[in-house]
Amino acid sequence: MNNFKLTALRILVLSLLTVSATNANDGVALLKVDQGARSAGMGSTQIPNSGDPNAVVHNPALGMGFQSFAASFGHTEYWENVKLESGYFAANLNPRWAIHGGIRYATVNDLEARISPTSNPTLFDANDLSFKGGMAYSLSPKIDIGLAAGWIMEKIGSYRGSALNFDIGAVYRLDSNANITAAATNIGPDFKLELSGMPGSDDISLPTAYRIGGTYKYRRYLGAAEFVYLDDEAHAHIGAEAAITEIFSIRSGYMINYSTKNFTAGASFRHRNITVDYAFIPFSQNLGTSHLFNLTFSL
């Protein structure tokens, strides 16, 4: 498979996973996908003190604030052959230190490759796998900081590549109801997709994201807003959540300056130490919808 064909396959796979236009120098698709149904339902915003271990994907400092140990398992579905699975945990070691980590896996099955017009195309799969672990530290009653390191591996057909990446973040508590958050995620070197004895791909850059935002809670209502710089473009995310009862919450969000997505919605059901989160993200340009599910428990 020459460089041109590998580039064409990569464009197809990344387009499927991100459901947006991309090019061969775009980063790993898995790292761009909305993670965590609660955050996704609120426009993919950072949510401190959420009790959701998935929050550390957006900001490693959000690993603070758990009573003891919490774990969350997620499933995201785009189309019949595009699926993403995840598992994250966070645990307080003591009042000032916490650890967190997780794994994300994305797969696209039975993609078709045609070198020339044919009714019998070659089928191949594409897979992304990410491991990440980190720590959060409480500098003071008002400031938490966090750092995480991980490894991302991508496989398209027989071609493989991998890269080390880092996250750094902070949370500043204005008071018991208001927070300011800032983070830089997926910082790392370029990598290539390679196959022994064959030409490799062009350099592939990781999708480094820079986020700054804030949240405010008023009684049973939570609001969040942030600015995100990703893929050389500025975006805005806003979201709101209402606790209808002690066991049921609803939420909605809006993401600005994306080509195929904007509105999001979701809900949560809680029973004792178990929470089920759901998010719904419709896409424009006849690209269907995305459904995210998370099952979270705490000890």
What attributes characterize this protein structure?
299 residues; mainly beta; 55% strand; disordered N terminus
SSE map:
Blueprint: H1 3-18, H2 37-41, E1 69-77, E2 82-94, E3 97-113, E4 122-138, E5 143-156, E6 159-173, E7 178-187, E8 209-218, E9 221-230, E10 233-243, E11 248-256, E12 263-271, E13 274-282, E14 289-298
Antiparallel strand pairs: 1-2, 1-14, 2-3, 3-4, 4-5, 5-6, 6-7, 7-8, 8-9, 9-10, 10-11, 11-12, 12-13, 13-14
Describe the 3D structure.
A 14-stranded antiparallel beta barrel has the order 1-2-3-4-5-6-7-8-9-10-11-12-13-14. The protein has helices spanning 3-18, 37-41, and strands at 69-77, 82-94, 97-113, 122-138, 143-156, 159-173, 178-187, 209-218, 221-230, 233-243, 248-256, 263-271, 274-282, 289-298. The chain is mainly beta.
Percentage of helical residues? under 10%
Supply the helix-strand structural class. mainly beta
The biggest sheet, with number of strands, parallel, antiparallel or mixed sense and barrel status, is: 14 strands, antiparallel, barrel
The stretches of 5 or more residues where confidence is low (pLDDT under 50) are 1-25
SSE string, helices as H and strands as E: HHEEEEEEEEEEEEEE
Strand tally is 14
Into which percentage range does the β-strand content fall?
A: over 45%
Termini separation comes to: 50 Å
Give a brief outline of the structure.
The protein is mainly β and 299 residues long. It is built from 2 helices and 14 strands.
